[in-house]
Design goal:
By secondary structure, the protein is an alpha/beta fold. Helices cover 25% and strands 27% of the residues. Strands 3, 5, 6, 10, 11, 18 and 19 form a seven-stranded mixed beta sheet that branches. A six-stranded parallel beta sheet has the order 14-13-12-15-16-17, covered by helices on one side.
């Protein structure tokens, strides 16, 4: 079958042939319908990230996925041919306490694998085989937004971690003394806008910052859901003196990340959910002042990466909530769907049109 293949740390991507997989008795075979493209994919293609499967010369790319079950092993009971599914990404090490309890996103050994990213083939192929516990069945109403479930699961975990920090101060978690919680989202790519949607659905008053014009698609989407948009090209002064209960970084900008610690309110949390594009960046920060503020105001900086199955299920519930409250806003995040044969310009690092580009594979 056809697949998009990479060989990190060597740069490049190509269409090539790989064996057509056959499911075992406790597995299902899935025809891939579409895959979303994100910065991680482009960094793998550029040779800056990713790891090959052991003993293999290449890796099948792709982790944001939607597919249809075409074959079911004899021992599988909870899925059937025709079901549309999204597969989770990370597979646990099988050693640590977190991976042994189905929480590979908290793996303690670092020996996990990730489909399409680290040590395990991904989903930019005609078919893949997987065990049912790693597949989340998608209800038909979410067919056009289901490919967003992987980034949405990452947001679900990040927001969950932040809320748990905020709940430290409350007798009844989530009450916040009668006033709405406030949130600031850094970045308005797909991850950032999904974070705004989740936080707004959870009752936060949300502000999102970027460097986009007010007539750009992200800004108009934010206005439609009642969130505030602020262009910070000229600096953070546009935010006035406002401080926030929760700040979620969806940009990976280390400099902006540390700047915004000053915007945390008392007992607040800053959640880092965007991976820095260059881990070697050096940033000068007023460390003493920042640490003193974190300590004296009970603030926290929390890292959050990947997701487990429960976060995918949370994402499905939120997709339903988004539809009830804002109509087709989630579907509108998909700016363009292109045949996967047009992968070259999309994966080469050039700027995509709109928010999210999706490559279509299956008929």
């Amino acid at each position: 079958m056809e697949a998009l293949l990479v060989a990190p740390p060597r740069a490049g991507v190509r269409m090539g042939k790989v064996p057509d997989p056959s499911p075992g008795p406790d597995e299902v075979k899935v025809r891939v319908l579409e895959c979303g493209i994100c910065r991680t994919d482009r960094e793998i293609v550029a040779g800056r990230y990713g790891a090959l499967p052991e003993g293999r010369p290449d890796l099948v790319l792709g982790h944001e996925n939607l597919g249809k079950v075409v074959q079911v092993g004899a021992a599988v009971r909870n899925l059937r041919v025709g079901d549309e599914v999204v597969a989770t990404v990370r597979r646990g090490c099988g050693i640590c306490r977190c991976c042994r309890t189905s929480r590979p996103d908290f793996c303690e050994t670092g020996l996990f694998t990730e489909r399409g990213i680290k040590g395990r083939d991904g989903y930019l192929a005609e078919f893949y085989v997987e065990r049912p516990e790693h597949l989340v069945r998608v209800p038909r109403p979410h067919r056009l937004s289901a490919v967003l479930l992987v980034p949405l699961s990452v947001v679900e975990k990040a927001v969950q971690q932040g809320k748990r920090v905020l709940d430290r101060t409350e007798v009844v978690p989530g009450t916040n003394g009668g006033r709405p919680r406030t949130a600031l989202v850094m970045g308005t790519g797909a991850l950032g806008i999904l974070a705004v949607l989740v936080l707004a659905a959870e009752g936060f008053e949300v502000t999102a910052i970027d460097r986009e014009r007010e007539d750009a698609p992200p800004a108009s989407m934010l206005t439609a859901i009642g969130a505030r948009h602020a262009n910070v090209s000229a600096g953070l002064s546009v935010l006035g003196k406002q401080r926030f209960d929760l700040i979620l970084d969806a940009t990976g900008s280390a400099a902006l990340h540390f700047d915004l610690t000053s915007r945390l309110g008392p007992n607040g949390a800053l959640v880092a959910a965007g991976i820095a594009a260059d881990a070697g960046d050096e940033v000068s920060v007023p460390a003493g002042e920042m640490v003193r503020r974190l300590m004296t105001q009970n603030q926290a900086i929390v890292g959050s990466v990947n997701a487990s199955r429960r976060h995918f299920e949370m994402g499905l519930r939120h997709l339903t909530a988004f539809r009830r409250r804002w109509g087709t806003v989630a579907e509108q995040l998909v700016s363009q769907r292109l045949p996967w044969t047009e992968y070259g310009p999309i994966l080469s690092g050039g700027k995509s049109e709109g928010v999210k580009t999706v490559l279509t594979i299956g008929r």
